[in-house]
């Protein structure tokens, strides 16, 4: 068996050099696909190859190693993934039962050595550590007496998570192999800021994508694509998370336009230039800017959808003619601001989330309840047929406009008791908007009060 040792015992612990920057496709479900190019110099027969540049949340069974050119058939005889990178806890575990030197500093910062035997390291791979137990001068201590000093690393120790392969080739070959794998700990989300004047239906929209890297690895000069859509994933039983308690750096990148295209049943957004994404970093990129979007403010009373008050809802059409929209919008948070005409400052007036929205669709976003439009709804009558073949109900909705402007309120009433229903009496015209809903549109002048009444009949014939 011929084996090519690409690294010496120490060099094998370091990342393999890469010939090109990595490529990332990030999903908004806390995972990403990583693709990197690795130079191989293989000899005929079986070769041992180590690569220590993977993330700490790699899914080992997702790893694909291949010759992207298709000229050489790589036969992978064996693949190993080691995540037991050297740490103080691991080294204590490796020295259980042995005596170590500990550096102790007194109150004057003077250092001296204390010998102690490691009874229990407290280390537990992938789990919560327990308190170490150290024997010093025949007495047990449930803590470390100082900073431990360890003997040199063995030949089998690693400093970073490492993939190792046994690769068989028929002849000597030099190639740039493509490594691809799925990793957890990376996600992205969209956020939209809507800015409107104090009065009017025109808004400016700025959309950002926020990419978060918690994979335990830095990606230098990486090309990045963002996949929008709900990709089906089999959930692992014990996911490893590294985000809790971490301090994240924030970077904002001013870029050229982000490009978008349909891909399978999803949408793919490509950043226009390569970026460096550090571990524990949050990076933001502007991906949409639209000015003068027509987004009228609607006042809707829909007790089943928005509750017992009149809701304020923004509505706009996602079309190119509407301020330059017309781009598929990935799901994300929307924040609304109005500019105070007195001092020009922006004031926050509400937020909500939108789902993935295709182009040419209409978007409605609930932003809060109206202060100065009062609504009261009550049942005024109910009647059941003596033959039990129909039922009637009567309702009254009272609206009072305490604004200084004329407003239109849309009253949505839902009739779910039986499919066969009809309005046999109504004080105002209505429109049947779906199989179980009627909508009344009521205009109110300042300080005007109106009562909308109706009687619905359910027929069971």
UniProtKB/TrEMBL annotation:
Signal peptide residue numbers: 1-20
Domain DUF4139 per the UniProt entry, residue ranges: 178-460
Keyword DNA repair appears in the UniProt entry: no
Keyword Signal attributed: yes
Keywords (A to Z) from UniProt: Signal
Pfam family, one: DUF4139
InterPro entries found in the cross-reference section: DUF4139
Protein name listed in UniProt: DUF4139 domain-containing protein
